[in-house]
Amino acid sequence: MRTISRYHRPATLNEAVDLLARDGVTSIVVGGGTVVNATEDTSETEVVDVQVVCADAIEEVDDRVIIGAMTRLQNLVDHPVVPPLLRELAHREGPNTLRNAATVGGTVASGDPDSELLAGLLVHEATVDIEHRAGSNGVSLGALLSDPGALQGGIITSISVALGGTTASARTGRTPADVPIVAAVGRVTGEGMRLALTGVALTPIVVTYDSLDSLKPPADFRGTSDYRRTLARTLVTRVLDQLGGAA
Fold this sequence. Notes:
Elements: E1 3-8, H1 13-20, E2 27-30, H2 34-38, E3 44-49, E4 58-61, E5 64-68, H3 73-78, H4 84-91, H5 96-99, H6 104-110, H7 116-123, E6 127-132, E7 135-140, H8 141-146, E8 155-162, E9 166-173, E10 180-189, E11 192-198, E12 205-207, H9 225-242
Parallel strand pairs: 1-3, 2-3
Antiparallel strand pairs: 4-5, 5-8, 6-7, 6-8, 9-10, 10-11, 11-12
Helix pairs in contact: 4-7
C-alpha cells in the first residue's frame, strides 16, 4: 500500500490537472480509491481526489452512450441505456462492495489484464476523453491500453461506447466466482466482427481469429503460456458459435 503524504480534493478540473503537473511531486488520481488501496507499491505519493470534478452521468447521444468517469460500476450494471454485454461484464468485475466503490474511469486507467469489462468496452469501440493541462483529447481505448503514457498528467473525464450489434462472451476461471484465466468477448455489427481477449497480454486486447496462434500470453500460477493460448482459441470458437459462426 502506498504511503500517502498529502491529500488534495480540487474544486475544478483545471485545479486537478494543475496539481498533477507539478514538478518534483509524485501524484496519483483517485476516484473510487479501490486501486490505490490495493496496490503493493509502497512509494510515497500525493493523492488528487477527482470525485467533485468528474461526472458520474450516463447519457445516450445518437448511436453512442457517454459514461462519466466517476460512474460506479454498479451504476453501469443498473442503467438501462448501457449495452447489455457491458452491464453483465461490469457485474463480473467484483463483489457488490467493490462495484459500489470502483469507477469506470479507474477501471480504464488500471488496464487490468483480467478485466472482462475492458474487453467488452474494446468490442463496443470505446473512446476515452482525457483532460490535460494543454486541453482535452479523445483516444481509442485500444490505443490508450497499448500506450498508458498517454494518460500521464491527465485525467479521464468520460468514456464513450457504440450501441448496437450482437454480442457474446465466454470465460474460463478456476471457480465460477474467480477472475477468468482467459475470457473472450465478441460483437458483430453491419461493419463486421470485433473480438477481444483478457489474460493473454499485459492488458485486454483486440484480436482476430487468424492472429490467435501468434499470441504470447504471460504465464503465472494459473496457467502456462501454451495453456492460455489454447484457452484463447477454444473460447473464441465458443463466442463465434454463439454469434453464428462468423470469423
